[in-house]
Amino acid sequence: MGQEPETSGQLTANGELRHLLTLEGLDQSLILNLLDLSQAYLRPIGQIPARDDLLAGRTVANLFFEASTRTRASFELAAKRMSADVLNLDVNTSSRIKGESILDTIYTLQAMQADIFVIRDASAGIPAMIASKVQPHISVLNAGEADISHPTQGLLDLLTIRQFKGEFENLVVTIIGDIKHSRVARSTAQGLHTMGIKSLHLVTPPGLEPNQDHYPNAVITNDIDAGIEGADVVMALRIQRERIANPSNLMDQVEYLKNFGLTKKRMQLAHPDAIVMHPGPMNRDVEIASEVADGPQSVITTQVANGLAVRMAIFAAISAARPIS
Ligand code: CP
C-alpha cells in the first residue's frame, strides 16, 4: 500500500531503527521484522524469560515524567534481561522539580554515559526534540508522548492481534472510548493502517471525537452498537481525565458504563471469535465490565506479556543499528 516515507529522523541512512519516536511512516516490512523479533523473545508463563547480552556495557535511563506501571516496568525488565545497566530516575526527587530543563537533565545523564533514553512526558514533541539534540551514538525511545504517540503500545497491540487473528487484511477493528485524548489509539491506528486492515471503527461519547485528519480512513461514530457490529477486535480505552480541563462535566461512571461501556451484551454484537483488548490502566465497570475484562475473549494480560517482548525487540533493533565499540 502507498505510504509516506519516514521523515522523523528515527531511521539510520541504512533504514535501520536508531530512535523509536512514532509508528507513522514506518513501513510494513520494518514493522513485521519488529513483530517477528518480539515473538522470538516470548516465553510461556512459568518458563525462564528470554535473555541476551546485546545491551551489555550500555546504560538505559528511564525518565518517566508521567505515571506508568506497564510501560515503565517492562522497559526496565527488558533492559535488565538484555544485560544493560539501568537507571530509573525518580522524577519526584530529581532536579527537574528545582526548575532544571528536561534537556539539561538529558545532558547530565549523557555525561554519565547513559546511551539509551526511554522518555514519557505530558508535552508534545519532547522525544523528537531530545533525539535532535543528543550525541550520535544515543537512542531515544518514546514511552508515551502527550496525546500524540505511544509507539511501543502500538506494536504490542499489533503483535497481540497477529497472534490471535493472523493476517491483518480482513480485520474489522473497533476502538471505544476517549479517542480524542488517546495516544494509544493514535499509534495503534497508525500501525493497523500500515498493516492494511479492512476497517477501523472509532466509537466515542459525544465531545470526545478525534480529529479525522489523524485517522483518515476510520469511521468515527457515537453509536456504540453500530461500531461493535461484526468487529474482530474490540479495544476499550479509559477516559484520559488528566488531559481534560473540566472532567467534572463528564457523565458519571454508572452512566458511562450504561452508554459507552464494553459489556457482555454488547460483545454479542461482535464477531463470535472477537478478542477484547485494553491497554491499561483499566477502570473496571466504567469503560469495560469486569466480566468482559476477565472473560474468555479477553487478551489483556497477553498484551502486557507482549509489551515486554516488544521492548526487548526494540532494544535489539537499535543495538543492531548502532553497535557499541
Ligand atoms: N498502557 C500503558 O501505557 O500503561 P502504563 O501507563 O501503565 O504504562
Describe this structure in words.
The protein is an alpha/beta fold. It has 11 helices and 9 strands. The strands form 2 sheets. The chain has a 5-stranded parallel sheet with strand order 7-6-5-8-9. Strands 2-1-3-4 form a 4-stranded parallel sheet. Strand 5, helix 6 and strand 6 form a beta-alpha-beta unit. Helix 1 crosses helix 5, helix 5 packs across helix 6 and helix 5 crosses helix 11. The longest helix is centred in the last third of the chain and has 22 residues. The mean pLDDT is 94. The structure holds phosphoric acid mono(formamide)ester. Phosphoric acid mono(formamide)ester (CP) binds next to helix 2.
Number of helices: 11
Principal-axes geometry comes out as globular
Low-confidence stretches: none
Main beta sheet strand tally, sense and closure = 5 strands, parallel
Distance between the termini: 38 Å
In helices, the fraction of residues equals 25-40%
The secondary-structure element order is HEHEHEHEHEHEEHEHHEHH
Rg over CA atoms: 19 Å
What share of residues are in beta strands?
5-15%
Question: How many strand elements?
Answer: 9
Strand order of the largest sheet: 7-6-5-8-9
Oligomer: single chain
Classification by helices and strands: alpha/beta
Which hetero compounds are present in the coordinates?
phosphoric acid mono(formamide)ester
Rounded mean pLDDT score: 94
